[in-house]
Write a structure and sequence with these properties.
This protein has 296 residues and is of the alpha+beta class. The protein has twelve helices and four strands.
């Protein structure tokens, strides 16, 4: 009987005890995980155009055929490649860019502000000594982002290039045909949507702090301090935003919130304003970059 009573008492304590607030590290980790899932969902919605993929594969095959001196096979494969793209061109609203591949890559910087500053100083020193490649390798480590990468075939120019190559082959101009095919492959466009992780974390931390500010002041302030630290990391890593809101304005807003929570704690409106500013700041910090595959 005593054991039963003890069990019931323990259960009552567990039920009545408040749920422990998540730590800042847990909030940050969940924010990154959620963002990665959303990025993958976006990537999965990108419609890979099968015919465009096959046309690129055949283009590469033509170059292999020519390397093997098999002109007949080269002409056949090139004709097939052109045919694949003709199918797409037949559609009234064919897109100018045809996705042929996509992936999501996440790189999270785990260092602190001091490490970033030290790395940047080293980069400057290396560049002063004209050690560009050594500097580039260090700069490549200064990333904290989720990238949605898509490779596109330009429909406006790629089919024309293949037709020109076919003309050269029929005229026996093998070298000219190879040059045109190489050029066509180099016109594939890499599109990268860059989502800064530190800004994602800051947004999630401020949102988490707003939900517990009344019942757990200490943890709410810890969240805000970590949000401010993440924003400083984002700024140090060079992630900019086209928003009218600046990093300084965000730091000031967080500090104002911290004082309010420690005082009368009438922070609802302040949280609303900061969450809205951070949302806009993050959305306008997400960039889409374009580059030729030839430069990769």
């Amino acid at each position: 009987m005593k054991k039963v009573m003890a069990s019931l008492t323990a259960a009552a304590i567990l039920i009545s005890s408040p749920t422990l607030a998540k730590t800042s590290a847990e909030v940050s980790k969940e924010a990154v995980k959620t963002a990665e899932s959303k990025a993958k969902a976006t990537q999965e919605q990108i419609h890979i155009v099968k015919e465009a993929v096959e046309a690129v594969v055949l283009t590469k095959k033509v170059l292999i055929d020519l390397e093997k001196k098999d002109l007949k096979k080269a002409k056949e494969d090139l004709e097939k490649a052109i045919g694949k793209l003709e199918v797409i061109l037949a559609f009234k609203n064919a897109p100018l860019m045809l996705p042929i591949d996509s992936e999501v890559v996440a790189v999270e910087y785990t260092g602190d502000l001091k490490s970033i500053k030290e790395s940047l100083e080293l980069v400057k020193d290396l560049l002063d000594k004209n050690k560009v490649q050594d500097a580039r390798r260090i700069l490549d480590t200064l990333q904290s982002e989720i990238d949605i990468i898509t490779i596109n075939l330009p429909l406006a120019s790629y089919p024309q290039a293949l037709k020109l190559a076919a003309k050269y082959l029929n005229e026996g101009k093998i070298k000219e045909a190879e040059d045109v095919l190489d050029m066509a492959l180099n016109t594939l466009v890499k599109e990268i949507t860059v989502i800064p992780i530190p800004i994602l974390k800051a947004q999630a931390l401020v949102d988490a702090a707003s939900k517990i500010a009344k019942k757990d002041k200490n943890q709410a302030i810890k969240h805000l301090e970590e949000a401010k630290r993440q924003l400083k990391i984002a700024e140090a890593l060079g992630y900019t935003s086209t928003s009218d809101t600046t990093y300084k304005m965000l730091y000031d807003a967080i500090e104002k919130l911290e004082k309010e929570i420690k005082g009368k704690n009438r922070s609802e409106k302040l949280f609303e304003n900061l969450i809205e500013k951070l949302k806009e700041f993050k959305e306008k910090a997400i960039r889409t970059l374009h580059s030729s595959e030839a430069n990769q």
